[in-house]
From TrEMBL:
Keyword Hydrolase: yes
Enzyme class (EC, first level): hydrolase
Pathway: Amino-acid degradation; L-kynurenine degradation; L-alanine and anthranilate from L-kynurenine: step 1/1; Cofactor biosynthesis; NAD(+) biosynthesis; quinolinate from L-kynurenine: step 2/3
Short name of any one Pfam family annotated for the protein: KYNU_C
Gene of this entry: kynU
UniProt-recorded Gene Ontology molecular function terms: kynureninase activity
Source species: Pseudohalocynthiibacter aestuariivivens
Name listed for the protein in its UniProt record: Kynureninase
Cofactor(s), names only, from the UniProt record: pyridoxal 5'-phosphate
Length: 397
């Protein structure tokens, strides 16, 4: 059983902050500054360019990729880190589309994170006017799996409401229609158990700065199923995805396996921070995290519904149908969130009216939830955002 008091002690949290925004940017793992200092001083400082081999920098994207792979149910050797998530979405989509050359449609839902949709739109424009991004309501995805769809691109957990897609069922259904699947696990990895191999997913991508706590700008990851990985053509054919980067050949030959999804030089300092963050998982079990997250979310929903009648639940009520966040709709949501932040309860706001709160058991406990409910009650019952003091102190986040 995970000792959550022990994992909480592994994070630096500012005094008086109740941090309910780890679903957007995880907090600082206490071990990260030392790990970064070591990488900077002992490795970069002393080894200079030899650090690529001596300090093992070159292997970090796949070594740490494997540690993330364990959390998302990937086969060893099939996850690599690098670039931003938007780039990894593009890469996965481009390869997936080529695997279905007779079809022209990318299907997604209109709750997906805009960057995923923008990348798909941009790729379609590059490929030609017969390519199309089709978006439907999340609940209509299953019925929209038609024979012209090449790729189904979905984010498992909706960033606004926390609604969870059924990855196993939708993957199976899509594949029965000859569709390749690309899953965005940005709001899943480190938040709930994922089993990409068990679900038979074709591609998966995700970021590390949310529930994996790699810090601002931490690299994204990509997974390609073993049955595809040596066949896919990387659209972003950078030198570090080449079979032999240091032969400096003039033409591209894709590397072996997941290595081909690398593009350019890996961000070593960010990877060092991520490595320190991944050490927390040596003391934590993702199934325990999920069970505790559902408990914390349920506690928050019950507390808010009992004392903040103006707020309406925007997340699924059933804990197994949502990710690790709870969202409420409130017409004064933006102002109320600013007032909450002034009081040290940090969540975020997503247009048009969503107050969003992430619950991350690695460092959030029942007392934090109770405090958040108390402060939210005070803010909404007393319309604190309307008082001159709060107007002065509220800052944009
Ligand atoms: C689901 C999802 N996809 C894509 C992104 C974009 O990630 P990045 O800024 O790393 O490209 C985010 C978060 O910003 C996200 O939540
Ligand atoms: N990546 C972010 C950033 O660089 C700045 C501000 C927010 C973010 C986020 O991650 C937003 C996040 N994907 C969301 O779910 O809203």
């Amino acid at each position: 059983m995970t000792d959550f008091a022990a994992t909480k002690a592994m994070f630096h949290l500012p005094d008086d902050a109740t941090y309910l925004d780890g679903n957007s940017l995880g907090p600082l793992p206490k071990a990260a500054p030392k790990r970064l200092a070591r990488t900077m001083q002992d490795e970069w400082g002393e080894m200079l360019i030899t650090g690529w081999n001596k300090a093992g920098w070159m292997g970090m994207p796949t070594e740490i990729g494997d540690r993330i792979g364990k959390l998302i149910g990937a086969e060893p050797g099939h996850v690599v880190l690098g670039d931003t998530l938007s780039i990894k979405v593009y890469q996965a989509l481009a390869s997936a589309l080529e695997m279905n050359p007779k079809r022209r449609v990318i299907l997604s839902d209109n709750g997906n994170f805009p960057s995923d949709l923008y990348m798909a739109e941009g790729l379609c424009k590059t490929l030609g006017s017969d390519f199309e991004l089709r978006t439907v309501k999340p609940e209509d995805v299953e019925n929209s799996l038609s024979s012209d769809v090449a790729v189904l691109m979905l984010t498992e957990v909706d960033y606004r409401t926390g609604r969870l897609h059924d990855m196993n069922a939708l993957t199976a259904e899509a594949q029965a229609h000859g569709i390749i699947t690309v899953w965005d696990l940005a709001h899943s990895a480190g938040a709930l158990p994922v089993d990409v191999a068990g679900a038979n997913a074709d591609f998966a991508v995700g970021c590390t700065y949310k529930y994996l706590n790699s810090g601002p700008g931490g690299p994204a990851f990509i997974y390609v199923a073993p049955r595809h990985v040596n066949k896919v053509r990387p659209a972003l054919s950078g030198w570090l995805g080449h079979e032999a980067p240091f032969e400096f050949d003039l033409s591209y030959r894709p590397g072996s396996g997941i290595e081909r999804m690398r593009v350019g030089t890996p961000p070593i300092l960010q990877l060092a921070a991520l490595e320190a963050a991944m050490d927390v998982w040596d003391s934590a079990n993702i199934h325990d995290v999920r069970a505790q997250s559902i408990k914390l979310c349920d506690q928050f929903i019950a507390g808010v519904e009992a004392s903040c009648p103006e707020l309406t639940l925007a997340s699924p009520r059933d804990g197994t149908a949502r990710g690790s966040q709870v969202s409420f709709r409130f017409e004064n949501g933006y102002a109320a969130m600013q007032a909450l932040i002034v009081r040290g309860v940090i969540g975020d706001f997503r247009a048009p009216d969503i107050m969003r709160f992430g619950f991350t058991p690695l460092y959030i406990d029942e007392a934090d939830v109770a405090r958040a409910v108390d402060v939210l009650t005070d803010v909404t019952m007393n319309r604190l955002w309307d008082t001159p003091e709060y107007k002065m102190r509220a800052r944009v986040t």
